[in-house]
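HUMAN: Mind making up another protein with tokenized structure?

ASSISTANT:
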Amino acid sequence: MTADIPTILATSGGFVGGQRTTVRPGPLLDFALELAHPGPLPRICFIGTAAGDQAYWNAVLHAAYYGREVLVSCLDLFPMPNFADMGAHLSSQDLIWVMGGSTANLLALWRLHGLDEILRDCWQSGVVLAGVSAGSLCWHVGGTTDSFGPELRAVTNALAFLPWSNCPHYDGEEQRRPLYQRLIGDGVLGPGYATDNGVGLHYRGVEMVGAVSEVLGAGAYFVERLADGTVHEVRIEPRVLAGADGSEPS
């Protein structure tokens, strides 16, 4: 089965620390899979382009689902695509989850390999798109990124499946909130949504229909530039997902 409408979950979380494995799927990842209405054997493909397709992390991601009836795959672009037909593989998934890292590098490589158009087709056909950090920002018009160095900068050429800007890790990195607000105030970015660590934005079509959280007390925010040039921030109280324990996502 697939989502009944193009669906995205853009997050600042997803995995939490595991007792028997390095990480385990947290409530945000479980929620993302639920949105796909999967069959008896759910299919998840992880895309780790933003961190350079690390073989170690591919192993960690497979291990995170040991003991679960979930079919896990990882799409690599280094040293070459590991699927001869990336479109066929991705379109067969219930959920595509994009890992964090360099948003700028991710966008350049996806466009080089045509993955941007493949992912748009998947989204429009009902495969749920989701991810953390770079895997949140990429679906939007642009946002704040550390792709270019420790001083955060704007990225304005993201995929724009969603007509909003985005800022992950709003409470997790000192530069995030002031830079995001300044970029919106200066008109570099349009209005958009930010997430504290552990929070996800649920989009149906291009409408943000609600925020969800795996961390107690964390929030989401809508930020816009008003007619008088001031920047206005509104907190969106997320729904706390089952299994949230108040710990920070890993």
